[in-house]
Design a protein that fits this description.
There is one protein chain. The protein is 47% helix and 11% strand. It is α/β, with parallel strands linked by helices. A 6-stranded parallel beta sheet has the order 3-2-1-4-5-6, sandwiched between helices. It is globular and about 50 Å long. The relative contact order is 0.17.
């Protein structure tokens, strides 16, 4: 932690169980996508998501991937493939917002997350999030956790609009946005390809080993934020 002034966190498999994302959030989006699209088709924001999805669908067709024609079915198709699609992630965030506001969704974080956020903030560290999920989805997740509203500890959120998580340039852009040198930022993730990209950008890195994560190896690893 020497010279670290900011902490950048992945969500899935780092702050939050993978099972919650795949079994609860993805399932909720799949179940409610059709009704949500029908009820919100006149919304400018939703139309923008649909336009992005149509562009991606056209690209899939040109690549002979045979995606379904219906947007609702295409959403299911993308979820099945865990596609890091900007249009999909944006639409999912809006569907989840509806669920959180209705009280039918409550997000999960590991027990060590809230105490770590408090400890890091007391130490004067910036806390930011980088996830393939949309900024809206990230904000909703941390606002409605089983440990309470954690957004008061978070200084910024980054999604695929800043770039892909496996590319060093994304982390360079994040460092600029955080107004810190890459060497002053610690990035924690459960995905080695992301840690490699952040390392290339000059950040310090830790592999998150949590229950349910795929086994991976990295020189520096933790099992809990209590170790940071």
């Amino acid at each position: 932690m020497d010279q670290v002034r900011g902490i950048l966190l992945d969500i899935e498999g780092t702050t939050t169980p993978i099972a919650f994302v795949h079994e609860v959030l993805f399932s909720y989006a799949r179940t409610h996508a059709r009704d949500f699209l029908r009820n919100n088709q006149d919304s400018d924001d939703v139309r923008a998501d649909i336009a992005l999805l149509r562009e991606e669908q056209a690209a899939d067709k040109s690549n002979n991937l045979e995606p379904p024609e219906s947007i609702a079915e295409y959403v299911d198709w993308l979820i099945d493939r865990d596609r890091k699609s900007t249009g999909l992630k944006s639409l999912q965030g809006k569907i989840w917002r509806q669920g959180y506001l209705a009280g039918s969704l409550k997000s999960q974080v590991f027990a060590d997350v809230a105490p770590a956020f408090e400890r890091w903030r007391a130490a004067g560290l910036k806390i930011t999030i980088f996830s393939s999920g949309s900024v809206l989805a990230q904000q909703l997740l941390f606002a409605h956790t089983d440990a309470g509203d954690l957004t008061k500890f978070i200084d910024g959120y980054f999604d695929t609009n800043v770039g892909k998580k496996g590319e060093a340039e994304s982390y360079r852009k994040i460092a600029i946005s955080m107004d810190l040198k890459p060497s002053e930022i610690l990035f924690i993730s459960d995905v080695v390809a992301e840690l490699e990209a952040a390392t290339e950008a000059g950040m310090k890195t830790l592999l998150s080993i949590r229950p349910g994560n795929s086994p991976q190896e990295w020189p520096q690893a933790i099992h809990s934020f209590d170790e940071v």
